[in-house]
Design goal:
The structure holds 2 protein chains of 2 kinds. By secondary structure, chain A is mostly helical. Helix content of chain A is about 70%, strand content about 0%. Chain A is built from 11 helices and no strands. Classes of the chains: A mainly alpha, B mainly alpha.
Chain lengths: ~300, ~325
């Protein structure tokens, strides 16, 4: 109904991605792109290399070391069970980034398929879009909350719940792009020259919907991560003892006045990750949609 | 001619909302069937006696066939019966109505912070594009959409309630007990709730304003010697506001969605907190019914936003 999807801040125009060296050079000169991608790469690296960076077991309880403030031995301090918060934040990165990435990929695939179907097969358009309208009538976090609660507290439930919550915005973006591309000369030319409709969709329409979708998915990555943290904080997402940034904050909340470090550092980690993804999304939007060229 | 076209568009929008409402009703019904295993057993709890499980099963109509259940569900909905809570001993509708003032106050207050601040920040950034002012404003907006609200809420409680003692750390005071205490109990939660929305709206306003400022009619306005204030304040902002109307639906949705989390942090007895507690207490009929009511509400809100948009922008009518 309202045509602005979360994340995509202007109406979508399908524009072929810039190709070749020139595009890369321009990206590498783009300040937001460089900052955003560096931070997210660093965080990903930290998540992957967690066991090498910190040899401690993230759930090892040592009551002797309860509530130690940040120090040389415990960079981010320790929590109520004497677990090392730095290590838990590292391992939390694995869960949080994985959930964000998985939601991004799965909802991206579903959006691409449904969006192209809606644009290409006009008879299915109404049905698909009304279903999307229905899903979009629930605030995303509430829909995810309901689905995650019904499916039970597991990593997979959180991924499914958030995927469903974020598909509709993606479908709208792909559909709008596909409808624009369909009318373009090169598609008409392909039709006239006798290309099959499958070929037209795969070779011409889909590739040209990818850039707006890519920009959108970068924001979805950030939203999904924030939402996972919120669900886990509420106790409906990732359950302890598995560390996720959201549930570390939830556990640290009761001691926030005395042991502020337990909840402070995972919060900074989420903010940094979301910030870098938002920067990246802005940069990609700038590069792929020339109409947005307003600033960096 | 013009009016006929307008009425037609409004009628089409209304008609499109009908299947959406039907789909929402079915989706909410299906939510219960997502439960792995026997819903009656899950709702009654693992330790419940077989008789208690049977009673839940009968109470929820789970002993009937799937289609029968769906039929009863839709029939009840058509009569305004959204089911009853298992725990609260109350119908979903009255449970929601009881908590509505809290959530509504919170959302309204946060939106009344959001709209002026967000529009102002976005316009300033667009007007001073590519200067340090633009960068500074957009950095703030970016932080707004990146920092998790529940985290900043906890930090806010520590700073403003525990350390400074300016506002109560939790709980809600109804407006009937005075506007001052009511405002004090909601100021911090509403402010934190609006951080994300302000960031979102500022970013959206900036790009809408940049779009408008590049248009020919702005150049014309400048060329004919209108003051900057009239050009930007009246011509540009008014046109950008049309784009911003579309954002109100998203803002309201974000406010209600965000209140689920914020109410939990500040122990505000609103709808969001009720849903979370219902989930933790496995009171699924309450979750189901509440989501449905909120879904219906947003269909209506989106419909109104859509119609306003059509009224505000003559170009849409001719599409």
């Amino acid at each position: 109904m309202t045509d602005t999807g979360l994340g995509s801040l202007t109406t979508v125009h399908a524009i072929a991605a810039p190709r070749g060296y020139g595009a890369w050079r321009r990206l590498l000169r783009h300040r937001s792109f460089v900052i955003g991608s560096s931070i997210i790469l660093l965080l990903t690296l930290a998540a992957v290399l967690a066991p090498l960076i910190s040899p401690v077991d993230p759930s090892a309880m040592r009551v002797r070391f309860r509530f130690r403030p940040p120090s040389q031995a415990f960079w981010f301090g320790t929590d109520m069970f004497g677990r090392d918060v730095f290590t838990r934040v590292l391992y939390g990165a694995r869960v949080s980034l994985f959930v964000g990435f998985a939601v991004c990929v799965v909802s991206g695939l579903c959006s691409a398929i449904l969006g192209v179907i809606a644009a290409q097969f006009r008879r299915l358009d109404g049905a698909i879009m009304r279903l999307m309208d229905a899903l979009m009538s629930f605030p995303a976090i509430l829909l995810a909350l309901g689905i995650a609660a019904a499916l039970g507290p597991r990593v997979s439930s959180v991924i499914i719940a958030l995927t469903v919550a974020y598909i509709p915005a993606g479908v709208r973006i792909v559909r709008a792009a596909a409808l624009t591309v369909r009318e373009m000369d090169f598609v008409q030319a392909a039709q006239v020259s006798g290309a099959s409709s499958l070929r037209i969709v795969l070779r011409h329409i889909l590739p040209n919907c990818l850039s707006p979708l890519l920009v959108h998915l970068t924001f979805i990555f950030a939203y999904a991560m924030l939402a996972e943290a919120a669900l886990s904080f509420l106790g409906v997402g990732i359950q302890p003892p598995i560390a996720s940034w959201g549930n570390i904050i939830a556990e640290g909340r009761d001691y926030a006045t005395e042991a502020w470090w337990v909840m402070l550092f995972p919060g900074i980690a989420i903010s940094l990750a979301a910030l870098s993804l938002n920067l990246l999304g802005d940069a990609l939007g700038d590069m792929l949609d020339p109409r947005l060229k307003g600033g960096e | 001619m013009e009016e006929v076209a307008l009425i037609r568009i409004v009628a089409v929008k209304f008609l499109q909302a009908v299947p959406v409402i039907l789909i929402i009703s079915i989706l909410a019904f299906l939510l219960l069937s997502l439960l792995p295993g026997d819903p009656a057993l899950i709702i009654a709890g693992e330790q419940a006696s077989p008789a208690a499980v049977e009673q839940v099963r009968r109470q929820l109509g789970l002993d009937r066939s799937f289609l029968e259940q769906l039929g009863i569900w839709l029939f009840n909905l058509a009569q305004g019966n959204f089911g009853s809570s298992l725990v609260l001993n109350q119908s979903v509708l009255s449970a929601v109505a009881e908590r509505l003032p809290v959530t509504l106050s919170l959302a309204a207050l946060s939106i009344s912070f959001t709209i002026p601040v967000g529009v102002l920040l976005g316009s300033v950034a667009a007007y001073f594009r590519r200067t340090w002012i633009d960068s500074a404003v957009m950095t703030v907006a970016l932080l707004g959409v990146s920092i998790p609200a529940f985290w900043i809420a906890i930090l806010g409680v520590i700073l403003f309630s525990v350390q400074l003692g300016w506002v109560p750390s939790s709980g809600f005071t109804p407006i009937s007990q005075g506007v001052g205490p009511w405002f004090a109990s909601l100021a911090l939660p509403a402010l934190i709730l609006s951080l994300f929305q302000i960031g979102f709206l500022a970013r959206m306003t900036r790009s809408a304003m940049l779009d408008v400022l590049g248009q020919d009619y702005i150049r014309t306005a400048r060329a004919k010697g209108l003051s900057e204030w009239r050009t930007v304040g009246k011509h540009a902002l008014r046109n950008a506001l049309i784009l911003i109307i579309t954002a109100t639906g998203i803002l309201l949705s974000a406010a209600i969605g965000g209140s689920v989390i914020i109410e939990q942090v500040f122990a505000l007895p609103g709808i969001g907190r009720m849903v979370v507690q219902a989930i933790l207490a496995r009171d699924y009929p309450l979750v189901q019914g509440t989501m449905l009511i909120l879904g219906f509400t947003f269909v209506m809100i989106n419909l109104i936003v859509d119609i306003l948009y059509t009224l505000a922008d003559p170009r849409v009518r001719h599409d």
